[in-house]
Input
Amino acid sequence: MKTWYGFAKGKTDGDQTMRNLLGGKGANLAEMCALGIPVPPGFTLPTSLCVEYTQSGASTLSADVRQAIAEGIGFIEENLPGTKLGDKNKPLLVSVRSGARVSMPGMMDTVLNVGLTKETVEALSETTGNRRFALDSYRRLIQMYGDVVKGVDRELLEEPLEMLKKEEGVTFDSELSVEALERLVEKLSAVYKQETGDDFPQDPKAQIEEAVAAVFQSWGGKRAISYRAINRIPDDWGTAANVQAMVFGNFSATSATGVAFTRDPSTGENCVMGEWLPNAQGEDVVAGIRTPGPLDEKDAADSDVGSLEDKMPEADRELREVMAVLEKHYKDMQDIEFTVQDDQLYLLQTRHGKRTAKAALQIALEMVDEGLIDTRTAVSRVSPEQIDQLMHPQIDPAAEKDFLAKGLPASPGAASGLVVLDADTAEAQAKEGQAVILVRKETSPEDIHGMHAAKGILTQTGGMTSHAAVVARGMGRTCVAGCAALSIDEAAGTVTIRGESGERTIKAGDQITLDGSAGEVYLGEVPTIESDLGGDFAKFLGWADEIREVKVRANADSPEDAQNAINLGAEGIGLCRTEHMFFGPDRIGAVREMILADDTQARERALAKLEPMQRSDFEGIFKAMAGKPVTIRLLDPPLHEFLPHDEADMQELAGILGTDLATLKRKNESLHEFNPMLGHRGCRLGLTYPEVYSMQARAIVDAACAVMDADIEVLPEIMIPLIMHPHELKRLRAQVQEIIDAKAATREAMPNILIGTMIELPRAALVADQVAEYADFYSFGTNDLTQTTLGLSRDDSGKFLPFYVEEGFWAADPFASLDQSGVGVLVELGTRLGRKAKPGLKVGVCGEHGGDPASIEFFVNNGLDYVSCSPFRVPIARIAAAHAALNKG
Amino acid sequence: MKTWYGFAKGKTDGDQTMRNLLGGKGANLAEMCALGIPVPPGFTLPTSLCVEYTQSGASTLSADVRQAIAEGIGFIEENLPGTKLGDKNKPLLVSVRSGARVSMPGMMDTVLNVGLTKETVEALSETTGNRRFALDSYRRLIQMYGDVVKGVDRELLEEPLEMLKKEEGVTFDSELSVEALERLVEKLSAVYKQETGDDFPQDPKAQIEEAVAAVFQSWGGKRAISYRAINRIPDDWGTAANVQAMVFGNFSATSATGVAFTRDPSTGENCVMGEWLPNAQGEDVVAGIRTPGPLDEKDAADSDVGSLEDKMPEADRELREVMAVLEKHYKDMQDIEFTVQDDQLYLLQTRHGKRTAKAALQIALEMVDEGLIDTRTAVSRVSPEQIDQLMHPQIDPAAEKDFLAKGLPASPGAASGLVVLDADTAEAQAKEGQAVILVRKETSPEDIHGMHAAKGILTQTGGMTSHAAVVARGMGRTCVAGCAALSIDEAAGTVTIRGESGERTIKAGDQITLDGSAGEVYLGEVPTIESDLGGDFAKFLGWADEIREVKVRANADSPEDAQNAINLGAEGIGLCRTEHMFFGPDRIGAVREMILADDTQARERALAKLEPMQRSDFEGIFKAMAGKPVTIRLLDPPLHEFLPHDEADMQELAGILGTDLATLKRKNESLHEFNPMLGHRGCRLGLTYPEVYSMQARAIVDAACAVMDADIEVLPEIMIPLIMHPHELKRLRAQVQEIIDAKAATREAMPNILIGTMIELPRAALVADQVAEYADFYSFGTNDLTQTTLGLSRDDSGKFLPFYVEEGFWAADPFASLDQSGVGVLVELGTRLGRKAKPGLKVGVCGEHGGDPASIEFFVNNGLDYVSCSPFRVPIARIAAAHAALNKG
Output
């Protein structure tokens, strides 16, 4: 068994596959060296030594490990000719790092500059001609070593530095004089002695040995143990320790430091991108005190520093070679840190580069064209969230913004416009060509036309699945919901915003900007970046479609929505809300007449007016979705949602209905409910007013037959909402079936019409085996299921749910991302029980979670057949579904 | 193997233990005969013959069975000397009945008068001198035989009778002339022939054989098979067939018929009770054409018929002997049917007699005194529902009533009073000594004083666990809730009731009567029967306490309630709703100040005013419950429940708070919630306004310490409501514990204070294993759990839930009796998961179901430690818990 594994350019004992022995970091360093990448030489003490050490209970390293360290140091010195540990001319300095099989916060991380002593610091000072640098390196060592190796209180080690800065009257560490740094070293040495009882060790080898022992010990530290317990990492894995030569970009005039990307992380363009500084340390680039130069000469026009290509052509050439090798090897865009010391290039780190959504898509597409990756890999490289970004305009990150308030990111995108406080004005101003933002306490179905006319919607109350949020997402409008800081005075035409820094008031007609992706509101017009998908997006989505197993449908309520859904790749409609059709100006009158009817006869008269309109809507939708399934939910919301709310509207309605205001008010009041969400709605309406569902079923059946007769394939699915008891479905199914049978008796052929139900109450999930007898399909309505399982009204949770998310009870708003350990249990149970009673039962989801990537992965893992979401989220869902399939492996 | 089992007084082949072979009916007949009871002789063909017959697939009986029938007939003739099957002078007539191991609707039941033919009908006519009777018996045979043996359509067999009655212009069957009956027999014979193809059989033996074959065949009939499938009765049990001699009370002047109870079924008094008629059939007693006489001479003063004791002393003596034997044997009050034929007494049936609640208790108590039964049996004889009746006044069943409307039976009892439409008037009129009924759309906490002052409460909306219902039960007031037919015009002082028969209007000040047990409302004052428990009731409850395993606590919110609960036998308080204390006139001001506070500081100022009041309430309750656990729920309802609702009250409050109406209205509006049941309440308030729970916890801890210092044992349990996530409880538990610890630091000894939670949301039950880590106890809040699991607002379900109960979706309102197959699954799961994580976790229930007998049985079977209910239901719960233990066996 080897006790140490050396790595240096082209010379290595390990490789990427040896993570268990060398840890993640050690294996990666070995891999890079094996590729011939110039990496500062070093060696890895394998995890087995840590396990031995920990099990032995010893407080100092064994002779074997000390021997391994000695040999490893020899290896480094060999590969960094001229340097030697403790040498008075060119001392070898090293870093010591832990590195377990998986990355593990809670363990000792890094000690830099190990090998510096009172003696070697002088050598460093002389060699570099930079006494500041040498002293600063030494004081950093004492601090880091004291902290992470010896466990000295970090505060105590910071205090002398802060006091010194005060004494000297300077702000930045870098402004301290050499003399001050000398005093700092003295003071830190004194603190070190006082806290540990020992002088700061002056033997470089002893420093390394103690640091390695500290790495091994940190495996058994309290934080590491608790991290492992939470993440179920076995205690007997152990950690490796990596000892690696330090290199310095500020070592000499022929030294430099920089960062590089193998492709442009903003645009994805395949070119060398990056920055460098001569005779500097990495942190100088970050600190922004000096302006770095570009790598490529073509970008160097305005640079004082000049390009690396021009100034250090040899290092530049080598860097480009290395970048090509790395990208080809890792098959992804790399983000590289490099240092040049005395003309010699060293790679300090390479990792997959972060990139914008646009770049992610571009790189994935091009890498497939280049043959570097296959389409599955390409799909895995672009996250659903990035697709989301690409589909909507975004606030320009560089823009100046006057922040007004924060709410919930209810529908993504960015939109600017004039504040309007009611739907009618929104519509009127939009007709005049104005961009408007509709600001409401909460929207109701009566605001639909105004929401449609607006560029964006801002509400004071309501959560991620409030009316405003759901409708805005469905329409593709930007929306910030539940912005509790607002207080709207519609009469005065003002909106007061109470923030931490006091009150501000804006007026109707003022310009504001919404960031629906961040949930933020700004005063004035903030510049945005338009969405830019490009023609290859469809190709990319096609690759995703080949991977995914779950179908993606859309929630759509009109022929226009249906067409939009088709354009965005929907494979059917998972939720068509018939009630949304009720709000058309030509229909609402008949709807209200139906609701206010005093008896069945009057109700049937009103329904007879609605029936042809519903039939024609369904025909349009069926035609748009030719050959694709369309799930139509029968009337769901409580009836009073359709009634007018203010007195003027009521007076008008009374006139139309030929009744008086008092009667209308009484009726209105009699329909009032304390908790409408838990009230007289869904199939409860269907059972108590059977004529309503009969009308709807007839309209569906007649429309389906008409479309079939036009030689268009039609696949209707009638969905009965809010089932809590199998007998509800038994009865309503029979009622609908009777209508189908009656129609069938008049025709030669009939479309195949499925009848199913929503599982949206806990009880329905608990008795899903009994319900299945009467259902051709299940669709989980996870909005309502979340509300009832958590006892949480989506419209009222704005006052406390943010607190829950902030405090980490949930990683995300449970209305936005499925509460997997609560609501998810019922989804799993309902699916399992349903399919136990009826094997192969078709099961989908039509709640808002159908468009959320994390939730989609959950649904895929639980074997659902399809998800359904708003049309604008269909592409995102397609990608997310593909990712879920890839993750399942 | 015997093929038939004879039974006659003192001579029998079988007994009660042979149910499997003889069926229930056969075994009981055998048992009575074994006791020496005079039963008309007969024989039983055992179930094994049915199984053989069914398996053979034959359409006629085997020779063996025919032989058994012949032998059985011989046995009957032997024991009824002089009679003979088909005899022209004294023909034997028999009944043929099925009789399986368990009673089984869906099988052939009974054919009477078998053995009558054209010939024997003449004999019967002659012997009895009653041609009408003979002909009527024959036409009944043809009808019954045709229907149940031959499966002829019953309508066809009824039609001739109906037509004849029309022709003759008579209303009752008994008014038909002899001549008409002769024609009827002819017509029925013709129908029989037409439908079966055969003449009506004239061979008495063949009649019996075919009837027996029909009994056996009915075991394989469609209805019987489906009944067995539903009730999981094995198909291979088979049914027995019983052939028994007919006896006739109208046979002669020395014949009679009657019914008898071994004790008075109204009062329970131990005396002979009953009625008889000479020369009559059982149905004559029922039909009420002749007025029967009493059995006992002491009751005969006003009787035309006279007493059996006087008129037929021999039969009477024998009947009394038989009654004594039967009661002693069956150890329960018996309800007996008897017939005397030619001076010979026959018992036709004996069964446990139905009785009033009062009689049930009286009989159970006396039978224990008499040494007839033990206390366990006594407890099993009185149902919890009967105890409920006994505890409240009841509408006199004999009273004339003017029915107004029907609602939900929300709180039992009967109450009359004047209609008042608001709480203040109710209080004022009650102070003047008026009995009043408070009539409201729905009550709110602001109505409490009026509810207290009223004799009864009537509401238009709201279900079995609405505010009105819960509070009324807690106070022991009669309540009819959710009476949807009402329409209240408070301004006009009228209540309009819309019924099937039109509209009626009553005014404030009119007298009405509520039947809270039936949910009915009557106009005027209807006489009631006062409750009458008697001193032995406590003894009886003591017996129940010895049997039950589950503890019974009460829901009580004040020292008075607590004392009442103790008096009724509560073993602790399972739910003390702190918010009910907030409504006192001296407190509501401070509560409103707390709610309307703009910042934490102002809120703490208001809380400081409330704290001493809460502390003093808790002290009172702890003292009343000395040594018994008291579970106190921290603030639960949404804050806006405490705010005034009408403008005048708001104006007043604004004055008190030194603010303006507009500000108050805005604040009020900002607290408005769309679905308050799912809103900002319970521990969500505790988390967002931690100072509220801290005040309450301090008040509890301080009160507990003060009571402890007065040398009274105190067992406080702090309950945190509406948990949906374990971290809510983790955090709030820590907060409460800190307050306990702070107190402990100032004292030598501390009471042991438990901290637990309610499981009242589906999610809490689903993650009960995680929640248990932070809980010392669980209490299921089944009201809220029902609302969320079923998605059903208790306040809004009045419009459709009655439909569900009427249609049999649920046997009872799920708010009154636990939905065991839905909500019950979560109770079972929550208990199991909780105890898996924390073995021995104390688990109780404090929802309304804690007082419902069927639900209590479910809780007992699921291992709960206690149930808690309103004080007035505690005795009922004690009995129900005992029954549950007895049923578990």
